[in-house]
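Technical note accompanying the year-one report. For the benefit of new consortium partners, we illustrate the data format agreed upon in the data management plan: each record pairs a sequence with a structure-token string. No post-processing was applied to the example shown here.
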Amino acid sequence: MRVSTSLLLVLGLVSSVAAKPDETPECKLCAKRMYKRLLQCAETCAEIAALISDDDPSVLLKQCQTRCGNEIDFCLGLGACTGTTCDPQEWLLTGTIAGGGAGKAIGAFDLALASDGVIAAFDVNHYCDNDVPGDNCKGGVNVYQEDATAVGNWAETERYEGAVKSENFGRYLAISDDASVLAIGGYQKWVIEGRGPADKYQCEITTSHSEVSGYTVAVSRNGKYVALGKFSARGDTQLRVMKYRPELPPKTQGQTPCPWKQKGETFVGGDYDFGYISISNDGNHVVYGNHDPRLGPNDDGAYMLIYRKDSKTWEKVADHIAGNGAMDLGSAVEISADASTVAVGFPGGLHLDTGAMTDSKVKVFQFDEDTEAFEWIGLILATTTYLGNWLSLSKNGKFLAVSSGPSMDEFPNGVARVYKKAQENYQLLKEFTGEAYGDGFGKAAVSLSSNGRRFVVAASGSDSTYNDAGKIYVYDNCGWRNGWIAIKKSKK
């Protein structure tokens, strides 16, 4: 009976949405398509509901949105279904998060956005001696949750702190779409936090390290895999992939279980590998960038690792996305959920051989699974100074966000951009600029939601509350935002 009741709940949701259209043809078309697609989705939702102890509509709706989000997004993106008059291509500033004290620099270096309204942000000046920013800070991560009944209102719900001074705990962050898995890295270790309602744990993973080691992290969008990368100037670089195994028992009696088991062997890389990493939903594809191409122009760029099931090893494919030979920073990378699309950012810097400044570039590639080769698609997106130092890709690879810190010549207040794939190229949807010079808008990481309809960017030097307290800006696509509000209201 629970399955049948759940099915009726889904059909009730469909009916309420389908009843919204009135005078506009676009709205009627939207409702018709939504009705058909949600009917197809209802059976899956009912199966999930059968495993739930009760038939609470809000729980069922959340599961349905998780499984059928792409179909729902299609209609919500039209905007007409909600009776709004806004342009569905327009983006709105829907919320901000300000740092809680002077010098906090919230959002510096890295932040991560989950699709269900959770943001994790690095606080570089967390837990400092005498609360004074400097080298004696442990670092930490602040987690913010959006109010379920008031879109755009954010509140801090959790904090994670480093254990030792100068650890920079939280320098690297990644989170799953449902926010149940949060991976944290710094200069000492990796930590995997379980944030699910019924699955709380903390896994601390360490290895030998040198002073300049960095521990980078990536989480697959479905939360089933975590990639852990370690880069170092001393050449002891390595990459591990962990698979979620909830059935694993604790190692010792009374110890909190760590439900993650390493998948395959540890892959040992070259000098400065694994500065940036990203992993696909199947856990078989990892793309990574070279942190610092001092071995020469032919050695920097991005690479793909593929898991070989027969040998249970990770193997680097022969094809290589070449960098620009610059010594400054490394190549930011991100892979789509199905591993078919790879975005790479090449920040500008001094060329190793010529000594000249190289232009920043952002390129997108299609990965052919059969030939294991990359094909460059579209155009170079921009050559703005440092644009591409950070980037974020939507789940299906159709939306791409890039950012650049302040530059005196072009964007003194910093800039961030969102692109959408159109045929074989990426077209600019929206350009965002900072409020003031010195705020560092876009200098740190940016993060795009899995469906590409929400975008967050940090300005770690913002003085809006305190001197250099930092600020995070949350932008929503207009049509998606209003549709999301309508669905939230239907839960009440």
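Partners are asked to follow this layout when depositing records. The longest strand covers residues 106-114.
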